[in-house]
Amino acid sequence: MGPVNMQLVEQARSIFADLGYTVEGNGPEFRAERAWKVVHVNTVLETDELPSSASGQFHCFVAEPDDADDLEDRLTSAEPNYEWAIIVVDGDDYQVERAPPGPRASA
Fold it and tell me: Residues 100, 58: contact at Cβ < 8 Å?
């Protein structure tokens, strides 16, 4: 794995904290928890392996704009057995590029 983009990690942690989640973990992969929902957050994904469904039901991938389309293509092709979303961070702004389907998708 290449160098970790700590600015992206801190922005991801801040986004989830601002949404009312308790954030646990210090690295590029951490947990965000609120009420009954635990989201496994990945800010760096440089390997060809996506997280397995054994690692949780909800996954959120945080990416920079240049990486978002490729990441979405990989996730769509892999059809993982968990709900996923991608948050694209561009400077101080962010946008959810793909939210999980279904009625349980509330953040």
Answer: yes
Name the residue with tokens 């397995």. Answer: 52
- Look at residue 3 in the predicted model and tell me its pLDDT: 56
The 10s digit of each residue's pLDDT in 32-73 is 999 989 999 998 766 567 887 767 789 999 999 998 888 888
Q: Choose among 74, 37, 73, 35: nearest CA to 56.
A: 37
pTM of whole model > 0.70? yes
Residue 73 identity: D
Beta strands in 20-99 (DSSP E): 22-24, 29-34, 37-42, 58-63, 83-90, 93-98
- Cα dihedral value 92, 60, 16, 66, nearest 10: -10
Residues 86, 63 contacting (CB under 8 angstroms):
yes
Residue ranges per structural domain of the chain = 4-98
Structural domain 4-98, CATH architecture: 3-Layer(aba) Sandwich (3.40)
